[in-house]
Amino acid sequence: MPEFFSNSTSSHFFQYLTGWIQADFIDLLPEDVISTNRQSINWDNDEMRKFRFFLSEMISKVNASWREQRKKKKDKDFEEATGIDTDFWMSTMPDDVKEHTSDILNMLSAEDALEKFTPIIKALHKIVPEYPQLHWRYLNDNLRERVRAYYQNRQYGQAADQAVKIYLEHIRTLTGRTEDANDLVGRAFTNNPCLHISDITTATGKNLQEGQQAMSRGLVSGFRNPMNHAPIDSVVPSIFSDVDCLNILSLTSYLMGKIDKAKLIKD
Predict the structure, then answer these.
(1) How many angstroms separate the CA atoms of 58 and 46, rounded?
(2) What is the pLDDT of residue 12?
(3) Which of 35-44, 104-113, 143-152 has the highest mean pLDDT?
(4) 10 Å Cβ neighbour count for 226?
(5) 97, 109, 139, 262: which could join 93 in a potential S-S bond, CB 3.0 to 4.6 Å?
(6) Are residues 122 and 173 in the same domain?
(7) Residues 14 and 113 in one domain
(8) Mean pLDDT, to the nearest integer, of 32-46?
(9) SS3 call for 148
(10) How far apart are CA 161 and CA 173, in angstroms?
(11) Host domain of residue 106
(12) What is the CA radius of gyration of the chain?
């Protein structure tokens, strides 16, 4: 059958295909297209070429339906065995990670191998979880949920912009100050700072304090201000690439972690 009706259909499919076709019209054709032993057909006949094309289309559709149902069953068996929603898991990965992870899963989740390799699949899921990039997995808790929608939509510019604004808001909440941007950063970290990142009586502490204010000023002047003073599509990705924005997100997370542990000095 495969050699007659379809070149694209998997031979594996034909191992499961059974059925019959009623084609009585063949006997009504002017030309006898059936061999004497009734085992073959003259496919060069114009009507038979049309019939062959019809059969090919029909079997292709049956094959597609079979593959879809087979995939649904496989995914259901996979989720029941591992507790992992494969479609959602794959949708959260960058393309390069998705490609390699999918190759591994296809080998490990075959029907005769799923039970055996379930522990390995679960271990793989821990190594490569949903949203597997390190900057997301270890993002500060005060940022993650508030930028999640942007991140999941791959709107990394908006996610980074939101993160910087949350960072400045967090400083105001901790200190009770009302300034914004670099005025707020200066009051928080320099000139009798109200947030001590570390023991500023030591050289290391002073360096950490100066680094916090310098990096915070960099976020404001080098990212937040350009983002606020122009339409976002004029700066992302032409000035700030997706990778740039993800790096900003990571830096903001680092700075958030520092002020979460900072000592508040009241006026």
Answers:
(1) 19
(2) 67
(3) 143-152
(4) 15
(5) 97
(6) no
(7) yes
(8) 85
(9) helix
(10) 18
(11) 2-127
(12) 32
Both tokens assigned to 86: 């494969």
Give the three-class secondary structure for 263: strand
Please indicate, yes or no, whether residues 90 and 154 belong to a single structural domain of this protein. no
Q: Name the band, by pLDDT with cuts 50, 70 and 90, for residue 27.
A: confident
List Cβ neighbours of 184 (8 Å cut-off, separation of 6 or more): 168, 171, 172, 177
Of 90, 107, 127, the domain-final residue: 127
Residues 6+ apart with CB under 8 A from 178: 172
Please name the helix (run of DSSP H) or strand (run of DSSP E) that holds residue 196, with its range, or none.
strand 195-196
Q: Which amino acid is at 88?
A: F
Cβ contacts of residue 160 below 8 Å, gap of 6+? Answer: 223, 227, 240, 245, 246, 248, 249, 252
Task: Assign 251 a pLDDT band (cuts: 50, 70, 90).
Answer: very high
Residues 148 and 34 in one domain: no
What does the pLDDT read at residue 182? Answer: 95
The total number of structural domains in the chain stands at 2
Torsion angle of alpha carbons 90, 92, 93, 94, nearest 10°? 130
Q: What is the pTM of this model?
A: 0.63
Written as one letter, the residue type at 71 is K
Domain boundary among 90, 105, 127: 127
